[in-house]
Design a protein that fits this description.
The complex is a heteropentamer of chains A (about 325), B (about 280), C (about 325), D (about 350) and E (about 500).
Chain C: E1 8-18, H1 23-27, E2 34-45, E3 50-55, H2 61-68, E4 76-81, E5 84-85, H3 91-100, E6 101-104, H4 118-128, H5 137-147, H6 164-177, E7 182-186, H7 194-211, E8 214-218, H8 222-228, E9 231-236, E10 239-245, H9 246-251, H10 256-264, H11 304-308, E11 314-315, E12 321-322, H12 327-330
Parallel strand pairs in C: 3-8, 3-9, 6-7, 7-8
Antiparallel strand pairs in C: 1-2, 1-4, 4-5, 9-10, 10-12, 11-12
Helix pairs in contact in C: 4-6, 5-6, 6-7
Chain D: H1 14-20, E1 33-42, E2 49-59, E3 64-69, H2 75-82, E4 90-98, E5 101-102, H3 108-114, E6 119-122, H4 136-147, H5 152-165, H6 171-174, H7 184-196, E7 202-206, H8 214-231, E8 234-238, H9 242-248, E9 251-256, E10 259-265, H10 266-271, H11 276-283, E11 333-334, E12 340-341
Parallel strand pairs in D: 3-8, 3-9, 6-7, 7-8
Antiparallel strand pairs in D: 1-2, 1-4, 4-5, 9-10, 10-12, 11-12
Chain E: E1 6-11, H1 26-35, E2 40-42, E3 49-51, E4 54-59, E5 65-70, H2 84-95, E6 109-115, E7 118-123, H3 130-133, H4 144-149, H5 155-164, E8 173-179, E9 183-188, E10 207-212, H6 216-224, E11 230-231, H7 239-244, E12 248-262, H8 280-289, H9 292-300, E13 305-306, H10 330-340, E14 346-353, H11 357-370, E15 375-382, H12 384-393, E16 398-399, E17 401-403, H13 411-417, H14 420-427, H15 433-442, H16 448-465, E18 468-481, E19 484-485, E20 488-489, E21 495-496, E22 501-502
Parallel strand pairs in E: 1-10, 1-11, 14-15, 14-16
Antiparallel strand pairs in E: 2-3, 4-5, 5-7, 6-7, 8-9, 9-10, 11-18, 12-17, 12-18, 13-18, 19-22, 20-21
Classes of the chains: A mainly alpha (about 325), B mainly alpha (about 280), C alpha/beta (about 325), D alpha/beta (about 350), E alpha+beta (about 500).
The structure holds adenosine-5'-triphosphate (2 copies) and magnesium ion (2 copies).
Protein name (chain A): ABC transporter permease
Family (chain A): Belongs to the binding-protein-dependent transport system permease family.
Pfam families (chain A): BPD_transp_1 (PF00528), BPD_transp_1_N (PF19300)
Chain lengths: ~325, ~280, ~325, ~350, ~500
């Protein structure tokens, strides 16, 4: 099986998942209490106005018809009209998505930059002082809520020391980098703690593996062994974890975007939920699901690139 | 030898293991022990009623009277942090226990029988883990409405999947051991094999995960409280306290710092205990 | 050996594992792929005898053992126990069958629940099958421990507190607790050191004599198989190529594969070098078993017919049954 | 008689016995490798566990030395300690004289020049000893790159030659394959190919055939034998199968509880072992005994690392043990020109008086 | 004054569609006047009407015809002239009930006609609010030509398209760029007609950058860090702190915002039980038992005052009363409670907005206050949409609510709070025939005095009946950097940037 057919079959496998995802989203949104028409309309609206609105939103149709429309529309790329923002959901999401993707990638980068070296140091000094300190710090990182870290960074580094802007996003790439540095760091601290824990134990595991010993017995230099035989192998499981943490990361961005006033889809999600913006909630949840699935696919790809045992035979 | 003496023997070896405990584990147990005591008897430890306004001490910084200061309504922060222990510890437990039970049962059964159930389960898991956890929990909370009970329901609805996944994998790993086959060959019933033989051996990572998950539940609960979707003010809950205090972070730092420290310490305790239990439950030999 | 009905009879037993096909395959309607592990096994066990089973790794020995105790649901062929077909049984029947046909596993570490003391293990077996009234169970446990020469205080210990050999004794005690008629021993001693191996084998032989057990003995170590078995079956790629009395198979194997296998075992006599050249080539994949005689690719005697036709087991005077087209000339 | 070991009672270190061991040539031909009083313990300080205890032996050029003994007796640790692979895990003491230099005192960097170049090793488990993420070709050539001046294409050519040599069909096509695409036996052969890449003078083979079927086992043993004969390569072959040892080795060293208990030519050891453990080992092999008769078995179980007795490790299981045995560790002494033995009460296998 | 510069303004929420007739949320409504001008204008007090795009106006004596003259030389932001056809287009659009939600406010208009620059509005019946309506955001003037050429088929699509691609407005600023949910950018309309103090056309500012920062604390941090020039919706808890900050000018603009709690006056509660709150005395008792001053201290930190009118804020026209309603009096409360038959331990639930810190304080405070008269107050926390639905269905005892006028006339708020047909008197189901007829009459009464009388009566009646817990009025709290001058937020909430300038 070539990698194209492999990719194809992976994509095929995503189909049932997606049908389920759509059912979940659809039902979830239909289950939201309160009449969406009431949520949408002004408090001053009369009953007649409400009824007209329901009609327009198709809320009077049977559930399965609504689901059919929903699926049909999603397939044609039409996610409906946002009630809150009075604009097409797809447009709104596309406007905001880059911010979140930027933030997420930035956070991934940070996580790796933080976790990688520290994990290596900790693993190579297993149970010695450096290891204990690093692990302790990360344990604290794991026990601290994202919003709290964000709050502290925002208050002290941005508002107090004025090293960074207080929230926002900026216009150019470098402004994004500057503005999103603290939010990315916030998200990354938590994720890097998870990654570092995993990476440390995989390195420890790998560094005593028979094939590493064998590499030593071959007379290779320690540096080469570390790079080629230890880190690469330790990364395999970490890649999975990173993929799985992407959901976590996105959860992190949800909160972080609120704290740092970053105009991404995370914050939009909260706004949408508070405003009972059905189409927007639907669209966003679907977007999250697609994004995460793509990341899973990507991790699979990276993993099978790293680990030939996972490649299709 | 009687069963009782067998049991005693077993417990004895458990205590023997306790002796060689890691200092981290002991520290974790101590933290959790104190947390539990505070959570059980908040009224005993809290110097003030957590909800009563005191106009004579608005936003008082930490003093001898108010060790952790007071908030903008004159409520004693120490008392509120202590009362929050009962909310947050309850949160840690209630938000996870049903996930644990459901997940363990489903995971065990699915992992044992595989087949169609497993395929369906796999699809559900795929679909559910495709959503970022918080997104799904928030969505469910939105459906049910904010509040602690609904938050527990939401977390359970989503969270059991993670337990089930772990349990399923563990059971399948344990099935690779011959004692499961041996049980079948001995003619034992499936339920006996699952619950008497496989489960006790497979549960360790689940229990360890449970510990981290309890820490996570506190973090998640606080996040939701912070976003206004979890515990509702005036209830004292750490996330809510931080949210309330964040407006005053520059002027009344103690309002958000004290509950923040409480979260970090408690989470730390759970993590340490999780690691310790992992050590303890690992079968030797 | 008795000349009554065999206790256990296996007729044309097949077992194929289905591989998990990728979704693309399903969509393209490609045929599912099978690992053909057992391809028509015929054998029988007489009451009180030991049948040794040898063969290369992956040839299906464990699968055979597991099929016999019902761990794998039957696919093709029949298993007759006491002239009764054991397939399609209800749970109760299956349970009763398992009480009478017990199995012991290769890995002494993994075949015991690490969290149950030996006492609990035996107690469970005795009470589930109601072998003894509750009150008599502790005495019976002591008896069983005596039987397998374990100290009585072993009852309170967890498996990890024992050595490998002791663990195998516990496994044996567990199997014996339900008073079975047949013991299937899959690589019972492979994981043990030579000297410990000897202890366990001695125990097994002793028990067989005392309790009149019937044993199917699967092992790697040919010397050991020869030592304990009355008869031996040689399996190659899921089919029996030669089966017969232990003496005759070991001293004068007929099937080219049996010859290669038995001769490859190095003797502990430094001066006793083997004369037969080692087999060349690798074991073919069970997913892709060659047509005809499965061994023809590695066989020095292979001719055209071997490539075409699968040889059947045939009785040869002075030997056992042999599945080889050239058996007559080789014998 | 020649002292190889220090006196444990006095706890004397190398100086005293180093002097005693300075001149082993008189009894033995010049050794390519001489191991003297090699000890290795896991961990440090109080809780350290002594895995091998003052092991001494020598290997001559072109010789195949078999190392046999129970599982856990320290065979693998001995081999790994020679290459300095166990230093990470604890303390290594004693001398490992390789061409007059003590490997134990060499820096890691200096050792790297010898590992894989002059002394190569095959590991016990072929399944886990190859890096699953790297192609077999790379794992062979990285060795060549480290130790030879060959360029890329030459390295590749050499790698193909090596795979051919160990009998892997269509070697050129398989360089790009990954270990999991090979069967256990083939992986074992790949390891042998890697070990042979730089034409070592000494091959440390740690149970090169345990994972294999008898039919394949024979192929591999034949290969090693042939190489040893053709290239004059010395081999230390660890095995727990006395049959394998009988068929391949020139000399055999028997190990028990981290110590060598008997060393000598293969025929001496297999035909007339003197140490009660060697005798027991040999007798429990079901060869040349009546079918279904009771096999000889040593009573008791081997001691774990943590609870080795203070005297002779074998004393608790030894039928010929005297009180002295449980107090004092017997040294490995030359009993004849060819055989060294560590036992206060040597037995005679032929007369069967070990019972 | 000084001209030039860009003002950076931190908002709590983003606008979605700033169009006179589609603006229905405060963040939209409050921005309209910056982009679109009305025919008439009110002065800063929100009451006095002055000419706007129309240079003069006159109402016929029967009150059925309003004549106006359009100012000369006024232009849209694209440079085209503002003509009568634009006025007709805009007013027709504004009163078309098929389009925006505000059409009902112009229900009295019969027709709009024009003769060159003279515009005549004919009414079906006298309407005391009509003049003010022409100074209200929904009657602001849009460009007919721009609408005609805009892409899209429906009016709403055209409005949307216009706002995104080629905004044309009549107000002091033009929308230049809008990153939804993040930022919005206004630039000065160089064709704007009004003149500043220096005799040059307004506005003084070159541009305004709006940043959307929903989080209160972050908004303030940004102001303190000097990253923005102004931040709106400052939590009252922080007003004192910012007042003390010498770099910041903490403004409290008078508003029509009131915070109150509708009481369910239905005879039966939603689950079919007798409703104790159906009795007037019970409601009065609760009102007396509520210490509004304390609430104001707790929530507004003193920056507000108790409601003095049952129907409206003191900034609303025709509001009567200067004394706080139901000044805290526990004795009266107890007496009334006894009269109403409130037994100790009577359970009442307060429905609050989840996540609202203010509501949490209100609940805790009311719980403590009302326990004095034997009431056990429990809380039910819901989100905004659910609260709205409960208000409509009557499944509540008491819930928190707030109001800001959109129109300068009291009719809107009075209709909302007390007139049954509008929305069952904010869902309380309070249905008072006298009140209803007074309200209807007042809507046609052109005589100001008579109308004031009617309103006074309504207010007394309403206060007496107490379908609400009357709580407090709050100002709009906006914090400005010291350099920002001349910014106002009107009592209706409208953000007025036309005369804002920055000290360089
Ligand atoms: N559950 C299973 N699913 C798929 N394939 C299996 C399964 N169990 C065994 N096999 C395959 O069946 C073949 C025979 O396995 P089996 O365990 O019976 O061999 P064996 O003769 O016992 O070998 P060994 O001597 O190594 O124990 C192997 O190729 C193995 O990979
Ligand atoms: N990393 C380690 N840490 C602690 N003890 C170890 C470690 N590796 C090996 N040992 C112990 O050292 C002793 C000697 O091990 P070694 O691997 O040399 O045995 P062996 O003779 O090769 O046995 P086998 O035949 O099973 O391979 C054993 O008791 C083993 O448990
Ligand atoms: Mg097997
Ligand atoms: Mg070894």
């Amino acid at each position: 099986m070539s990698s194209i057919t492999y990719l194809l079959s992976r994509l095929l496998q995503m189909i049932p998942t997606f049908i389920l995802v759509m059912v979940i989203i659809f039902l979830l949104v239909r289950l939201l209490p309160g009449d969406p028409a009431i949520a949408m309309a002004d408090a001053k609206a009369t009953e007649a106005q409400l009824e007209a609105l329901r009609q327009r939103l198709g809320l009077n149709e049977p559930l399965w018809t609504q689901f059919f429309y929903f699926v049909r529309n999603v397939l044609t790329g039409d996610l409906g009209q946002s009630i809150l923002l009075k604009a097409p959901v797809a447009t709104v999401i596309l406007e905001r998505l880059p911010v979140t993707v930027f933030l997420t990638l930035y956070a991934v980068l940070f996580s790796l930059l933080i976790a990688g070296p520290l994990a290596a140091i900790a693993a190579l000094n297993k149970n010695q002082r450096a290891d204990i300190i690093i692990r302790g710090l990360f344990q604290v990182g794991l026990s601290t809520p994202v919003f709290y870290i964000g709050l502290l960074l925002l208050t002290f580094l941005a508002a107090f020391l004025r090293w960074f802007p207080v929230g926002g996003y900026g216009q150019t790439f470098w402004q994004h980098m500057y503005h999103l540095l603290l939010p990315a760091l916030t998200v990354a601290l938590y994720t890097s703690a998870i990654i570092m824990r995993n990476l440390r134990s995989s390195i420890i595991e790998v560094i005593d593996a028979e094939y590493v010993q064998f590499a030593r017995a071959k007379g290779l230099s320690e540096g080469l062994i570390l790079r080629r035989h230890v880190l690469r192998n330790a990364l395999v499981s970490t890649v999975t974890l990173l993929g799985l943490s992407i959901g976590n990361l996105m959860s992190g961005t949800l909160v972080t975007e609120t704290v740092f006033a970053v105009p991404g889809v995370g914050r939009l999600m909260l706004d949408a939920i508070f405003a009972r913006d059905y189409p927007l909630i639907q669209g966003l949840t679907l977007t999250f699901a697609v994004l995460v699935s793509l990341v899973f696919l990507l991790t699979d790809m990276i993993q099978s690139w790293l680990d030939p045992r996972l490649r299709p035979s | 030898m009687t069963d009782a003496s067998l049991a005693r023997k077993k417990r004895f070896s458990f205590f023997k293991r306790l002796q060689g405990l890691q200092p981290g584990f002991i520290a974790g147990l101590t933290i959790l022990g104190f947390s539990l005591i505070l959570a059980t008897f908040p009224a005993f430890f809290a110097p003030y009623d957590p909800n009563v306004f005191d106009f004579t001490a608005l936003q008082s910084p930490p003093t001898a009277l108010h060790l952790f200061g007071t908030d903008n309504l004159g409520r004693d922060t120490l008392s509120r942090v202590i009362w929050a222990y009962s909310v947050n510890m309850q949160m840690a437990f209630l938000a996870t226990i049903f996930s644990l039970i459901t997940g363990v049962l489903v995971g065990a059964v699915v992992g044992y029988y595989r087949g169609v159930a497993d395929i369906i389960f796999g699809r559900c898991v795929d679909a559910i883990i495709t959503f970022p956890f918080l997104v799904l929990v928030i969505a469910v909370v939105a459906v049910l409405g904010p509040g602690l009970i609904n938050m527990y329901i939401a977390i359970t609805l989503v969270g059991w999947v993670y337990y089930a996944r772990l349990m399923r994998a563990e059971i399948m790993a344990q099935m690779a051991n011959d004692y499961a086959s041996a049980g079948k060959v001995m003619g034992y019933s499936d339920s006996r094999i699952i619950f008497r033989h496989l489960l006790p051996n497979a549960i360790t990572p689940v229990i360890v995960y449970w510990m981290t998950d309890m820490a996570l539940a506190i973090l998640l609960g606080s996040s939701l409280g912070y976003l206004g979707l979890g515990a509702q003010p005036p209830e004292a809950e750490w996330g809510v306290l931080i949210a309330e205090g964040r407006n005053f972070i520059t002027t009344a730092w103690w309002l958000s710092l004290m509950p923040g420290i409480a979260i970090v310490i408690t989470g730390f305790g759970f993590s340490l205990v999780g690691d310790g239990i992992a050590d303890l439950l690992r079968p030797r030999g | 050996m008795t000349d009554t009905q065999p206790l256990l009879q296996v007729k044309n037993l097949t077992h194929h594992f289905k591989t998990n096909p990728p979704l693309v395959d399903l969509l393209l309607r490609r045929a599912p792929r099978f690992i053909k592990v057992l391809n028509g096994i015929d054998l029988h066990l007489e009451r009180g005898e030991t049948l040794g089973v040898v063969g290369e790794s992956g040839c299906g020995k464990s699968t055979l053992a597991r099929c016999l105790v019902g761990l794998y649901p039957p696919q093709g062929g029949e298993i007759l126990f006491d002239n009764q077909n054991v397939s399609h049984k209800t749970r109760a029947e299956q349970r009763d069958y398992n009480r009478r046909v017990q199995m012991m596993f290769q890995d002494p570490y993994s075949s015991l629940n690490p969290r149950m003391t030996v006492g609990q293990v035996l107690h469970e077996a005795l009470s589930v099958h109601k072998m003894r009234p509750e009150a008599e169970i502790p005495d019976r446990i002591d008896e069983l421990l005596d039987l397998v020469s374990l100290p009585r205080d072993a009852a309170g210990k967890l498996p990890h507190e024992f050595s490998g050999g002791q663990r195998q004794r516990v496994a044996i005690a567990r199997a014996l607790s339900v008073e079975p008629e047949i013991l299937i021993a899959d690589e019972l001693v492979s994981a043990l050191d030579v000297s410990v191996q000897a202890q366990v084998v001695n125990l097994l032989l002793d028990l067989q004599d005392r309790l009149g057990l019937t044993i199917l003995f699967v092992a790697h170590d040919l010397r050991l198989v020869r030592h304990v078995s009355h008869r031996v079956a040689v399996i190659y790629l899921g089919s029996i190529v030669e089966i017969g009395a232990s003496d005759s198979v070991f001293s004068s194997p007929v099937h080219p594969y049996s010859r290669a296998l038995l001769n490859a075992a190095p003797s502990i006599d430094p001066d006793h070098k083997t004369s037969i050249p080692p087999l060349s080539g690798e074991l073919p994949s069970p997913m892709n078993i060659p047509p005809g005689c499965a061994f023809h690719g590695r066989c020095p005697h292979a001719t055209e017919i071997c490539r075409q036709e699968k040889p059947l087991l045939k009785k040869f005077e002075g030997h056992g049954e042999i599945a080889c087209h050239h058996a007559a000339t080789l014998a | 008689m020649r002292h190889y070991s220090s006196d444990p009672a006095t706890g004397a270190g190398q100086t005293q016995n180093g002097a005693a061991a300075t001149d082993p040539e008189s009894a033995n031909p010049p050794g390519l490798l001489e191991v003297r009083n090699l000890s290795m313990s896991f961990g440090h300080g109080q809780s350290s566990l002594l895995a091998i205890d003052k092991v001494s032996f020598a290997v001559k050029p072109g010789e195949i030395l078999g190392l046999v003994g129970e599982s856990g007796s320290g065979k693998s640790i001995t081999l790994r300690s020679i290459l300095g692979l166990t230093k990470r895990y604890g303390q290594v003491e004693g001398e490992i004289l390789w061409k007059k230099q003590d490997l134990n005192t060499l820096t890691n960097r200096a050792l790297q020049k010898i590992r894989g170049r002059e002394i190569a090793m095959i590991f016990q488990e072929p399944m886990s000893s190859l890096n699953p993420l790297l192609t077999v070709g790379l794992q062979i050539t990285e060795n060549l790159k480290a130790h030879t001046k060959l360029d890329r294409t030459e390295r590749k050519k050499k790698a193909i030659e090596l795979l051919d040599l160990v009998g892997i069909p269509s070697a050129a096509a398989r360089l790009g394959d990954y270990p999991h695409q090979f069967s256990g036996g083939m992986r074992q052969r790949v390891m042998i190919a890697i070990a042979l890449a730089s034409e070592p003078e000494l091959l440390l083979a740690d149970e090169p055939t345990t994972a294999l079927d008898v039919t394949i086992q024979q192929q591999i043993l034949d290969l090693i034998l042939a190489l040893s004969r053709e290239m004059g390569m010395s081999v230390i072959m660890v095995t727990h199968d006395l049959g394998v040892a009988a068929q391949t080795c020139d000399r055999i060293a028997v190990m028990y509880g981290g110590r060598l208990v008997e060393v000598g030519p293969v025929r001496n050891i297999l035909r007339n072992p003197r140490h009660p453990y060697s005798i027991g080992l040999l007798r429990s092999v079901p060869e040349n005994v009546p079918p279904r008769s009771e096999l000889y078995s040593l009573p008791g179980i081997p001691p774990g690392l943590g609870n080795r007795p203070s005297g002779c490790c074998f004393a608790p299981r030894c039928l010929a043990a005297t009180p002295r045995c449980s107090e004092e560790k017997p040294d490995l002494l030359q009993t004849s020109e060819k055989v060294a033995l560590a036992c206060f009460n040597p037995q005679n296998f032929l007369s069967g008086n070990s019972q | 004054v000084e001209r030039g510069g860009t003002l950076t303004f931190a908002r709590y929420d983003d606008s979605t569609l700033i169009d006179p007739i589609y603006a229905d949320r405060n963040p939209d409504i409050w921005m309209v006047s910056n982009l679109y001008d009305t025919l008439l204008r009110t002065e800063a007090d929100g009451k006095t009407v002055v000419p706007g795009l129309a240079s003069s106006y006159s109402l016929s004596s029967d009150g059925l015809e309003l004549k106006m003259t359009l100012r000369e030389g006024i232009r849209f932001s694209d440079g085209s002239d503002i003509e009568a056809q634009d006025v007709i287009f805009s007013l027709e659009r504004a009163r078309n009930p098929d389009l925006g939600p505000w059409a009902g406010l112009l229900g009295s208009i019969e027709s709009v006609t024009a003769n060159d620059r003279d515009i005549t509005i004919t009414l079906k019946n006298p309407d005391p609010t009509i003049i003010l309506m022409l100074a209200t955001f929904n009657t602001a003037i849009v460009s007919k030509d721009a609408f005609d050429t805009a892409s899209g088929t429906t009016d709403q699509e055209k409005a949307q398209a216009l706002s995104i691609s080629a905004p044309v407005g009549s107000g002091p600023f033009v929308l230049k760029d809008h990153q939804r949910g993040a930022s919005m950018n206004f630039v000065a309309n160089r064709h704007y007609w009004r003149q500043g103090e220096d005799g040059q056309p307004l506005p003084y500012l070159d541009a305004i950058d709006f940043l959307v920062i929903p989080d209160d604390a972050t908004r303030i941090l940004k102001l303190q860090a000097g990253e923005v020039d102004a931040a709106e919706f400052i939590p009252f808890a922080r007003v004192a702190e910012l007042k003390a900050d010498s770099n910041i000018n903490m403004e409290l603009f008078p508003s029509t915002r009131i915070i109150y709690s509708p009481i369910n006056t239905r005879e039966k509660t939603a689950d079919g039980e007798d409703n104790i709150l159906a009795s007037k005395e019970a409601r009065q008792a609760l009102n007396y038992a509520t210490n509004k001053e304390a609430l104001i201290q707790l929530i507004l930190h003193g920056a507000g005052k108790p409601m003095t009118s049952g129907l409206m804020a003191s900034t609303t026209q025709l509001a009567t009363g200067t004394e706080p309603l139901y000044k805290y009096d526990l004795e009266k409360a107890k007496a009334l409670a006894a009269k109403a038959g409130i037994k100790p331990g009577t359970e009442i639930s307060l429905t609050t907005l989840a996540g609202s810190a203010d509501d949490a304080i209100i609940f805790t405070a009311l719980q403590q206050m009302w326990s004095q008269i034997g009431i056990k107050l429990s809380v039910e926390q819901v989100d905004g949409a659910t609260r709205g639905a409960k208000n409509r269905s009557g499944e509540f005892d008491i819930h928190t609510y707030g109001w800001v006028n959109d129109v300068n006339d009291p009719a809107q708020v009075a209709g909302w709070l007390g007139y049954y047909p509008t929305r069952k008197a904010v869902g309380t189901d309070w249905n008072n025939a006298e009140f209803n007829s007074l309200y209807e009459a007042s809507n046609k009464e052109t005589n100001l005095e008579k109308r004031a009388e009617q309103y006074a009566k309504m207010q007394t009646l309403y206060a007496e009946e107490a379908p609400l817990i009357f709580m407090y009025e709050t100002p709009f709290a906006v914090a400005l950097g010291n350099a920002v001058k001349g910014y106002v937020q009107t009592p209706l909430g409208s953000n007025e940037f036309s005369s804002t300038w920055i000290e360089q």
